[in-house]
Amino acid sequence: MNEDLIDAFLEYLVSERSAPDNTIAAYANDLRSFSAWMSDRDLDYRRITTAHLREFTSQGKHSGLKTTSINRRLTAIRQFFRFLLQEELVDSDPTRDLARARSTAYLPEVLSIDEVDRLLGAPDCSTPLGLRDKAMLELLYATGLRVSELVGLKLQNLNLHVGYLMTRGKGGKERLVPLGESALARVNDYLSLSRPQLVRKAVDVLFCSNRGAAMTRQ
User: Fold this and answer.
1) CA-CA distance, 151 to 192, in Å (whole number)?
2) What confidence tier does 103 reach under pLDDT thresholds 50, 70, 90?
3) What is the pLDDT of residues 79-95, one digit of tens each?
4) Which of 9, 121, 123, 208 could form a disulfide with 134 if both were Cys (CB 3.0 to 4.6 A apart)?
């Protein structure tokens, strides 16, 4: 019965909701995982409670599923029970009071002053790569460049005498970005002391990899 109801729901998504193929495939996979879990416990959809769903969610966490995957499962189950309720195949919706899974940690929106200081002080400036990394971090901090813009900078993009650089952002739009004294000093250190040791062939990029070539954003 469970599999027949899943098939009916997927057909409904296609015919009535015009759901895209990737959504159909994801819902099918998630609901069949849920169906297998129910079968192991001799349950069907008419007997599912909110407590059962919390147990299913907890099992996903313990098996190593990411929070995004768990929430995708819950979305599929919610939509499915709404369909069953609409078709009068169940009397109530056990997902109504079910909260989304929450991540255990969140990335900070901004760094504290102490975190910024530790980040800028991390490179070992006694090495060519350390000088390079220091200059890169100082430029990122001073200008707000995206990493892709930073690694794409060329020597001709810099005007160290005036204190600015030119970059090309999204949509190919060029803009001039002023540099602070600290960033200027670190870039000058890199150009005079580090870059000549890293470059092994003629390249016009500002920042070179340890092999003397252009760097990628990764």
Assistant:
1) 19
2) low
3) 999 999 999 998 888 98
4) 123
Torsion 16-19-24-26 (CA) sign: negative
Mean pLDDT of the chain: 83
CA distance 183 to 193: 15
Please tell me the pTM assigned to this model.
0.48
Please give, one letter per residue, the 3-state secondary structure of the chain: CHHHHHHHHHHHHHHCCCCCHHHHHHHHHHHHHHHHHHHHCCCCHHHCCHHHHHHHHHHHHHCCCCHHHHHHHHHHHHHHHHHHHHCCCCCCCCCCCCCCCCCCCCCCCCCCHHHHHHHHCCCCCCCHHHHHHHHHHHHHHHHCCCHHHHHCCEHHHEECCCCEEEEECHHHCEEEEECCHHHHHHHHHHHHHHHHHHCCCCCCECCECCCCCECCCC
Provide the residue count of the chain. Answer: 218
User: Does the pLDDT value for residue 195 go beyond 70?
Assistant: yes
Q: What is the pLDDT of residues 50-82, one digit of tens each?
A: 899 989 988 888 888 888 888 888 889 999 999
Q: What gap in Å lies between CA 116 and CA 166, rounded to an integer?
A: 25
